[in-house]
Amino acid sequence: MLTRRTLLSATAVAAAWVGAPLVYAQAKPEKTKVSISVGGKAAFYYLPLTITEQLGYFKAEGLEVEISDFAGGSRALQALIGGSADVCSGAYEHTINLQAKNQFLRSIVLQGRAPQIAMGVSTKNLPSYKDLSDLRGKKIGVSAPGSSTNMVANLVLSRGGVKANEVSYVGVGVAAGALTALRSGQVDAISNTDPVMTMLEQKGDVKIISDTRTLKGTQEVFGGVMPAACLYTTQDFVDKNPNTCQALANAIVHGLKWLQTAGPGDIIKTVPETYLLGDRALYLASFDKIREAIATDGLIPTSGPKTALNALSSFSADVKADKIDLSRTYTNEFAQRAKERFKA
User: Comparing C-alpha atoms, which of 73, 162, 80 is closest to residue 117?
Assistant: First the structure.
């Protein structure tokens, strides 16, 4: 006879079986201590990484993450290639550039769906600026030579008929050093991220000539959706550590989910004080400007890689579009699982 106790026991067993896949679906990371390199962590470009770290989402996935901050994305990339970092938080286009050199890197989760890079000319050094040809022979500040800020500058200049070897690039970082370099006249123009660019713009220090801080601006500059900051690593790391990659993707997508509803006060409370560069109001104004550029679910859009390839091949002789296999530059499998888990 089916007693009440038997029925309750059966119900409990059934519930346990239903719940089991949710509990055991995520296998333990193969590598729990993970080193991540990043080029300019204080920039909004990497805000999802900072939020994920500060809110303890990496730890929640069983990871002990050490983040090493470098002056620019190219140096963070070097740390990955050199073996001192397991994963790089950097610009997606590096996966294409490196494949052109027969080195295969793969993005595992997207942080930004627009480059968030603006280019401006100094109102002090070039008060009579008219067009891009005025930049020939000038010094242009970038986060670090070879970084995504450099790439955007190359693209903008090429469309004005100015070659990269006709200007001088100067590494200025993405924080206070960048502000100082422009305001002191060390550079004549600058290609950089927020909050630096909004601070320079609002104080009248620069005249903006190209802007990818919004989706509309990105469409105008690149002609399509342009994947930006992501976590990328070597194919060997992905092959050997799929559970670790899943844990990293879970953590970042959790951070992206939080950012979708976070208010200005939430951001201020979460990021380190030094990131505000001494001006809380301007920092928040910068956040409002780039908010839509932050990825929502960690997935690289289908058309994004092609947009990046077209941009790179338009000014770089090393990147030949017909020689690049875009399917080897990213995977959405980890982000897709994370999206489903967090309903991002």
Answer: 73
Examine the domain organization and report whether 230 and 337 are in the same domain.
Answer: yes
For 320-335, what is each residue's pLDDT tens digit? 999 999 999 999 999 9
Q: Is 163 helix (H, G, I), strand (E, B) or coil?
A: coil
Distances (CA, A) of 31 to 47, 67, 83, 166: 24, 15, 15, 46
State the residue range of the domain holding 131.
117-222
Flag whether 129 is in a domain: yes
Cα 191 to Cα 170: distance, rounded to the nearest angstrom: 10
Cβ atoms of residues 133 and 162 within 8 Å = yes
Any domain includes 18: no
Q: Are residues 185 and 125 in the same domain?
A: yes
Q: Render pLDDT for 251-264 as a digit per residue (tens, 0 to 9).
A: 999 999 999 999 99
Do 126 and 95 fall into the same domain?
A: no
Q: pTM of the entire structure? A: 0.89
Phi, psi of 186 (to 5 degrees): -65, -30
CB atoms within 10 A of CB 315: 16
10 Å CB burial of residue 18 (0-12, 13-18, 19+) is exposed
User: Count of domains in the chain?
Assistant: 2
Same domain, 181 and 319: no
Return averaged pLDDT per consecutive 10 residues of the chain, 344 residues in all: 42 40 67 97 96 98 98 95 98 97 97 97 98 98 95 95 97 95 98 96 97 95 96 98 98 98 94 93 92 97 97 93 97 98 97
Single residue among 206, 222, 238 that ends a domain in this structure: 222
